[in-house]
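Worked example 3 (structure in, sequence out).
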């Protein structure tokens, strides 16, 4: 597991005027829209929203146009995050438009590698769990879709830790 400061892509962006981040999962209705909501809250808390463009997308096309999964919205709302993203699929041009593309698990990473137009573009892919430092047995952000309430809470715990640390490394 690489730590924050070892990630060259992130290191190169530190302090940049404008940073564009795309969070990616499979469905774009649970993990990545939650990551988008949490990261937007982190940059707002730090009065730093103007410097960031934050979006999310899915590698799959099952839910295009949908709001996040109702369960994700309910659990996020309890922590103060209002998730209003509309599901969209990742496109090759996202690799041009964004500085970093943050995958939730290894399957997302492999799918993103297939979509990346060039090998150079693949360097933009980073792993969300590399930035989470809470004590869990997870080395990825686990898909909560077929889980109960605990799965959604675990995702939010991991995302809150990872977003704080990602922001710190980009400050
Ligand atoms: P996500 O979760 O990748 O965190 O948005 C999923 C949502 C929907 C499906 C799979 C994962 N699905 O197969 O419909």
């Amino acid at each position: 597991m690489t730590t924050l400061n070892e990630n060259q892509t992130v290191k190169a962006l530190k302090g940049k005027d404008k940073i564009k981040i795309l969070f990616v999962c499979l469905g774009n209705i649970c993990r990545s829209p939650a990551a988008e909501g949490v990261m937007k809250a982190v940059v707002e808390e730090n009065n730093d929203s103007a410097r960031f463009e934050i979006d999310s997308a899915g590698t799959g096309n099952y839910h295009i146009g949908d709001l996040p999964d109702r369960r994700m919205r309910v659990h996020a709302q309890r922590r103060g995050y209002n998730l209003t993203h509309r599901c969209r699929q990742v496109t090759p041009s996202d690799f041009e438009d964004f500085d970093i593309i943050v995958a939730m698990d290894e399957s997302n990473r492999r799918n993103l590698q297939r979509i990346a137009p060039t090998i150079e573009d693949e360097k933009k892919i980073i792993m969300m769990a590399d930035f989470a430092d809470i004590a869990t047995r997870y080395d990825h952000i686990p898909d909560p879709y077929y889980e109960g309430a605990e799965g959604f809470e675990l995702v939010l715990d991991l995302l809150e830790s990872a977003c704080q640390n990602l922001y710190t490394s980009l400050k």
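Notes: The chain has a mean pLDDT of 95. Residues 25-31, 62, 143, 145 surround 4-nitrophenyl phosphate (CB under 6 Å).
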